[in-house]
Design goal:
The protein is α+β, with helices and mostly antiparallel strands and about 160 residues long. It is built from 3 helices and 8 strands; from the N terminus they run αβββββββαβα. The two termini are about 20 Å apart.
Length: about 160
C-alpha cells in the first residue's frame, strides 16, 4: 500500500467524468488499498478515484463503521433533506453549507464485482452523494449555500 497525492481544486482531473470499471484487476485492488490508506492518513471520511488522479468510478468511504468500497456506484433512491457543513480533501481547510438528501440508497459493485445495494442516512448519505459527485466531475463547492469558510480543527476531522 502507498499513499497517493490528493489532487486539489483547480486540477483539471477533478472536472472530468470517470469511466466505469469492467473488472477488478490487481491494479484496481492496489488502487483501493492506496485510496483507503490515503483517506485515513488525511483524516477523511471519503475519497473518490479522481481525487488521486484516476478517472475510474471508484469510491472509498468510512464514516466510523469500517471501510466501504464502491465500484461504479449510483444513487437509486433518496428522500428528505439535511443541511450542514461539508468539506473536501481536495479543498483542505475549507467548508461550506450544502443541502443533501437525508436518506440515500445506492447500487454498486464490490471488490469481487458482485452487485449490492446499500442505504445510508445523515453523514453516510452525505458521503455517498459527495463522492459520487466527484465521479461525474463535480465538487461540493458548486452546491454551497452562502460562502466557503475556514474550518476549525474539529470540523476538519470530518472532511469527505
Amino acid at each position: 500500500m502507498a499513499q497517493r497525492i490528493i489532487r486539489q481544486m483547480g486540477d483539471e482531473v477533478l472536472t472530468k467524468k470517470c469511466r466505469e470499471i469492467k473488472e477488478v484487476t490487481p491494479r484496481i485492488k492496489e488502487l483501493i488499498d492506496d485510496m483507503l490508506e490515503t483517506m485515513y492518513e488525511a483524516n477523511g471520511v471519503g475519497l473518490a478515484a479522481p481525487q488521486v488522479g484516476i478517472l475510474k468510478r471508484l469510491v472509498v468511504i468510512d464514516v466510523g463503521e469500517g471501510p466501504i468500497v464502491l465500484i461504479n456506484p449510483r444513487v437509486i433512491a433518496s428522500r428528505g433533506e439535511q443541511t450542514g457543513d461539508e468539506g473536501c480533501l481536495s479543498l483542505p481547510g475549507k467548508a461550506g453549507t450544502v443541502t443533501r438528501p437525508h436518506y440515500v440508497k445506492i447500487e454498486a459493485w464490490d471488490e469481487n464485482m458482485e452487485r449490492f445495494e446499500m442505504e445510508g442516512e445523515e453523514l453516510l448519505a452525505r458521503a455517498f452523494c459527495h463522492e459520487i459527485d466527484h465521479l461525474d466531475g463535480h465538487m461540493y463547492v458548486e452546491k454551497v449555500e452562502g460562502v466557503i469558510h475556514d474550518v476549525t480543527d474539529e470540523e476538519e476531522e470530518e472532511e469527505a
